[in-house]
Specification:
The structure is a homodimer.
Chain A: H1 3-6, H2 14-29, H3 34-45, E1 50-51, H4 52-59, H5 63-75, E2 79-82, E3 91-94, H6 98-128, H7 134-165
Antiparallel strand pairs in A: 1-3, 2-3
The structure holds a DNA duplex (30 and 30 nucleotides).
Amino acid sequence: MDELTQGNHHELDPLERQVVSVFVDGVRVLGLPRSIGEIYGLLFISESSLSLDDLVLRLGISKGSASQGLRMLKSLGAVREVDGGGDRRTYYEPAIELKRLAGGFIREQVRPHLESGKHKINVLTATANDIEDPARRKFLNERLERLETWITSSGRILPVLQKILGQ
Amino acid sequence: MDELTQGNHHELDPLERQVVSVFVDGVRVLGLPRSIGEIYGLLFISESSLSLDDLVLRLGISKGSASQGLRMLKSLGAVREVDGGGDRRTYYEPAIELKRLAGGFIREQVRPHLESGKHKINVLTATANDIEDPARRKFLNERLERLETWITSSGRILPVLQKILGQ
DNA sequence: GCCACTGTTCAATTTTGTTTGAACAAATCA
DNA sequence: TGATTTGTTCAAACAAAATTGAACAGTGGC
């Protein structure tokens, strides 16, 4: 294997390690696995695109992790495939526009929960109307209505978010 | 023990279980432990305030969990203490204004991460300026600058969030 | 002062979620 | 066609995080 054409397969240098660790912390806040942060972080400070086994070799993670991590990053729109050197590997580059990253996260991780929440509350509201005791029924309806306004407000936020982040 | 004065210590009825499960799912999205969702959820559909051992008995969780969960909910401003019956227990009620809940979450869980992120990036930027290779240094500075704008944009969002949620 | 009650702490346990690695599929090459 | 390379899948191993429960501290009643 030739370093000039195959890239650098040593362990990370100290600066790279620090940057990766920033991303590892960052994705933990978002509730994503550490490997996602490692992979995205390394792509983020790498000038050239990297292949799956670049990631395996440089981060010291398994092929399985790298494969699953890249799949999730692709679904989030956080990495894109590029055609790399003359070989038949797939190479990856990070998407670095915050707007795009936030958009992917909202689409994949936030919206589905809001939708399913809205649905569950509708079911609950129907159930609550079968309650005998009128005082209890009234109370439950008030609370469930409030829950609904929470979801509505949250939904209103998302476009605003995307607008602000797109700058 | 008298049910009329001490409250209902049976297991949850189906509707209560469903509501609690909505909150359990909700807090998981936010990266908080399930017990937080259980406790807040039960308070949310309970007409009267509840004591620590009401929570223990009705949710079937340990005293330790209930105590730690209430501590976190207090720090988030998601519950408030009220003086209950004639006994010397502390009773709790949920805060149900989305504005307040979001504010607490942002203050306790979001801002600290943004701050520490900003700090780490400053450290990194200093390190990057020691890099010999000018091309590499330039690239790193560009990327770190971008990271900084991410944090800045994210910070700008928080007040907007609070404004929209406060309606 | 002693007992009963309420709530906290934290080491041990349990649960949940992530990573690994071996088996496999698909694609390319010779 | 068979050998090689690239990447995926998923059950098992592992790691991280939450929960338990027993010991403890504080408080009030008697």
